[in-house]
Amino acid sequence: MEYYFDIMNIDLDLLFSWGAIAKKYKKNELIFDEEETAHFYFQIIEGSVRMYNSNDDGKEFTEDFYHNGDSFGDYSLLIDKSYSSKATTLKDTTIVKLSKIKFLKIIEDYPLLRNQFMISLAQKIYSKSETSKVIINQKPEFRIVAFLNTFKRKSEVCADRILVPYTRQEIANFTGLRVETVIRVCSRMNDSNKVKIINHKLYY
Amino acid sequence: MEYYFDIMNIDLDLLFSWGAIAKKYKKNELIFDEEETAHFYFQIIEGSVRMYNSNDDGKEFTEDFYHNGDSFGDYSLLIDKSYSSKATTLKDTTIVKLSKIKFLKIIEDYPLLRNQFMISLAQKIYSKSETSKVIINQKPEFRIVAFLNTFKRKSEVCADRILVPYTRQEIANFTGLRVETVIRVCSRMNDSNKVKIINHKLYY
DNA sequence: CGGTTCCTTGAGGATGATCAACGAGGGTGG
DNA sequence: CCACCCTCGTTGATCATCCTCAAGGAACCG
User: Which residues, 6 or more positions from B197, have their beta carbon under 8 angstroms from its beta carbon?
Assistant: First the structure.
C-alpha cells in the first residue's frame, strides 16, 4: 500500500506514550464547534467525522469527511483563531486526543512528522483552492463532476464504475447546491451517460 | 509596527546570501501559470501581485493580492502538484526568487522561519475556509461585506470610512459575482448607509 | 482632447432555489 | 412475516435572483 502524506497521521503508540487518550463518540455527536478555540490534536482510530459549517438559513457546507487514521482540525492548533467549522461524527467513532502543547512538542521533536504535517497543510491549501475554483465556476454539473472526481481519486479502485457512497444530500452539502438540483443534474448526467443510476444508487 | 505571521517573509539579506536573485517584472507580466510546477520561492520586494484562475467563460476568480514583503505560492513547493492559480503583477514589481531546494533547506535549518512558514500555511487554510464558507452562502451583499471586512482588517487605519482601493471588477473577481451585480448591490448598500459612494468612489 | 479604463443603467432571460407532495427502500419490533 | 417508521430519492410548479447583453456616461491620463 502506498503511503500518502495528504492527511496528517501519527503513530498510535507514540501518541499514547505522550499521554494521548482515546475517547468514544456516539453517532452524530459534536466533537468541536465553530467559534471554539483549539485545545487538542484529534485523530480517528475507527469511524468517520465530518467538518462543516452552516449558515443562517440552515444550509450546510461540508468541508471534508475524515476516516480511520485521519487527523482533522489540526491546523487550528497553530493559529490564534477559533475553529472555522464544526466537527461531528457520522457514526460511532473512537478518537485519540492529545493536548495542543504536546502535539506542538512532537512536531518540534520529530522532523519526519513535522514534514508530514507541513505537507498535509500545503495539501489542504491546494485542495481548498481547487474547491473554491470549482464552486465559483457556477455550473452545477461542473461542481458535481469535480466532487465525484476528488472522491474517485481517493478510492483506489479503478474499475469502470464505482458506487458513490454519498447521499444526494451529502453531495449537495459538498457542492453548495440543493438536493433537488443534485438529483435533477444527476439524472440528466445519467441520460448523457456520464454517470449511471441503478436502483437509485449512483455509479461513477 | 506589529509583526504578523499571516504571510511568509524571509529577511532579504538572508535570501541573497543563499543565492537568491531579484528580478524586475513589468505591469501585468506573468510570473507563473496554472499547470506549471513550482521551482522557486517568490517574495515581493516592491510592487503587487495577484493570484487568480480563470474558467472557460473567461470569468476570473482572484485568490489573493500580495504586496511588499509578501511571499506567494510558497505552499506549492511542498507538494507534487502544479500551481492551482496563475500569478501576475498588478504594476511594475521587483521580486526575489530562490530555488526550491534552497528554500526547503532554509526551512529545515532555521526553526524560527520554519515556524513562521507553518503558521502562514495554517493561516491560509483558515482564510480559505472562511472564504468558501462565505461564497457558498450565496447572497451577494453578504459576500461583498465579507470581502470588505477582510480588506479592512488588513488595513490598520480604523478611521470612520476608508476608501476601498479596488475597482468594481476586482471586487467581482474576489466574490465570484459579476461587475453589474457588484455595482447594483453597492449602490443599494449606499442607500442603506452600509457603504458610502462619493464620486464613484467606494468608502467602507 | 483623444483614448482607455471604469462605472452605470435597463431590459430580458436562464437557472437554481423553494415549496409541497409523494414514492421507495431498509430496518425494527411485534 | 407484516406493519410501521424513517431516511432518502423524485417530481412538478412557481419564483426570485443573478447573469447576459447592449449601450452610454464619467473619470483619468498622457
Answer: B186, B187, B190, B203
